[in-house]
Amino acid sequence: MNVLWLQSAGCGGCTMSLLCAEGPGVFDLLGGAGISFLWHPALSEQSGGEVRTLLAQVETGERPLDVLCVEGSILTGPKGTGMFQILSGTGRSMLDWVQSLAPLAHHVVAVGTCATFGGVTSAGGNPAGAIGLQYDGDQPGGALPVAFRSKSGLPVINVAGCPTHPDWVTETLLLLKAGALSAADLDELARPLFYAENLVHHACPKNEFYEYKASAEELSQMGCMMEHLGCVGTQASGDCNIRGWNGGGSCTRAGYPCINCTAPEFEEPRHPFTQTPKFAGIPVGLPSDMPKAWFMALASLSKAATPKRLAENATADRVKVVPNLTSGKK
C-alpha cells in the first residue's frame, strides 16, 4: 500500500509526533506491514522536478494512489482561489491539488485537527480561509464536498488531534492495509472509533480527585482540573490516558488541562484554556451524558465526603498526606 502525504497549512506537528512512534518505530512498523510513502515532504529524498513528475503520474493515473494523507488545513483565500498557498514549483494551489488527487485515492486520510476541521490555522477570524478536508469547523463540507467518497466508498477518515498520537495514524494505516476499517468503525465525525470511543477522562491519574471533587486551584497542583482550570477531559474523545504518549505521558498526566483538541473548533473556546467558565459558580461544561442536576447533587455529596488526604493533596504540587494503610484491627 502506497501513501502520498501532503503538508498543507499547519505547523508540521503531526509529522513530528508520528516520528515519536515507539516499539517499533514508524519506519519499521509501516515497512514491515508493506506500507510505503510515494512521497512525504519532510521524510522523502525526492524534491523539485522528481516530485512534480510523481504528482503528474498520479494525476494521470499512471501511478496508482492507495492512500492520500493530508496534514494541515486547506487555505481557500483569497476569494476562494486557494492561492494563498501554492504547492511549491507547481504553480497550483494546495486546494486545487487536493481536489484533483482525492477522487483518485482508494482512501483519503486527514491527519490532525487542522486537516480535519480547520484547527488552529482557522482561529482568530480566519483571514486565510482555512478549512478542513471535509469539514469547516463543525459544519460538514470543506475543501471536499459533503457527498465526497473515496474509491473505497468511505468519507475522509478524520484522524483528529493537535497533534495526533502517532499510534492513531499508524493504526489507521494498518487497518486500511488489512481492509479492516469500514464506515461502522468511524464515529459521527468520521474519526476512527478505536480511539474516539474513549474519553480523555478514562484512566486519567487525577480521577480519584475528580471522584471527590477535590480540585486544583493552580497549575502544577495535584487535584482535578475540571472545576477551576478548564479541563474538559470528561467531554473529549481520545484514549490519551490509556495508551499514553512517548512512554506514557499525556496532557493531564503532565498537569495541564485537556483542551479537547480532537474536536471541531477547540481552538476558540471563548475563554482561556486554563479557566473553567461558570454560571452562578457552577461549571458550564459538565461531563458527557450526565444531567446537570444529578452532577450537582453528586458533587455536593462527594465534596462532603472528601478524605483529608485528597483535600490537602489537591492543592499541593506533591503528595503531602500519604494513604493510611492500617487495617483497623486492634
Characterization of this structure:
The chain is α/β, with parallel strands linked by helices. It folds into two domains: 2-196, NADH:ubiquinone oxidoreductase-like, 20kDa subunit (Rossmann fold), CATH 3.40.50; 198-320, Cytochrome-c3 hydrogenase, C-terminal domain (Cytochrome-c3 Hydrogenase, Chain A, domain 2, Irregular), CATH 4.10.480. It is 25% helix and 13% strand. The protein has eleven helices and 13 strands. The strands form five sheets. Strands 2-1-3-7-11 form a five-stranded parallel sheet. The model has no long low-confidence stretch (mean pLDDT 93).
Distance between the termini: 68 Å
Roughly how much helix do the residues carry, as a percent range?
25-40%
The whole-number mean of residue pLDDT values reads: 93
DSSP strand content = 5-15%
Structure summarized in a few sentences:
By secondary structure, this protein is α/β, with parallel strands linked by helices.
